[in-house]
Amino acid sequence: MSETPRTPGAEDRLVAAAPRPHRPARPRGTPVTARRRVVSLVAYAVRLASRLAALSLALHGVFTAFRANPANGWYQLVESLASGLSLGLADLFQLADPRWTTLVNDGLAALVWLVAGSALAGLVRRTAP
Fold first, then answer.
1. Phi, psi of 86 (to 5 degrees)
2. How far is CA 40 from CA 33, 34, 48, 81, 118, in A?
């Protein structure tokens, strides 16, 4: 019974694992230029401005429909913003209740702001090379 000779510490050695295949780097595409950054910033500003306009119109409609206190500072601020942003739609519909008239007309103006702002931001973004 002959045993194969063992070298001391052979059982302590780790077996090297098979090397992992190399994963190629992700393609970067075109580098981001300064012009592209400016165009993205302008598109973001257009989208933000249109959403803020729509928000102020929607708040005015809700404040009016639920009979908010006209002497409140927030109501006065939102009312002054909404009067300038109504796009001539403040008197488009004449309903029996003036509260619902304001809600419908301001809601329609808010939708116009959202659609126009998104369309304009898309056009601005397309100008980037």
1. -75, -10
2. 11, 10, 12, 27, 13
> CA 3, CA 111: separation in Å to the nearest integer?
88
Record the tokens describing residue 92, joined without a space.
């488009």
Token reading at 15? 């077996």
- Give the pLDDT confidence of 26-62 residue by residue, as tens digits: 676 667 788 889 999 999 999 999 999 999 999 999 9
What pLDDT does 32 receive? Answer: 74
End-to-end CA separation in angstroms for the chain: 80
Q: To which residue do tokens 């959403």 refer?
A: 51
Task: Output the pLDDT for position 13.
Answer: 59
Cβ contact 45:117 at 8 Å: no
DSSP-derived 3-state class of residue 79: helix
99: its two tokens:
């509260």
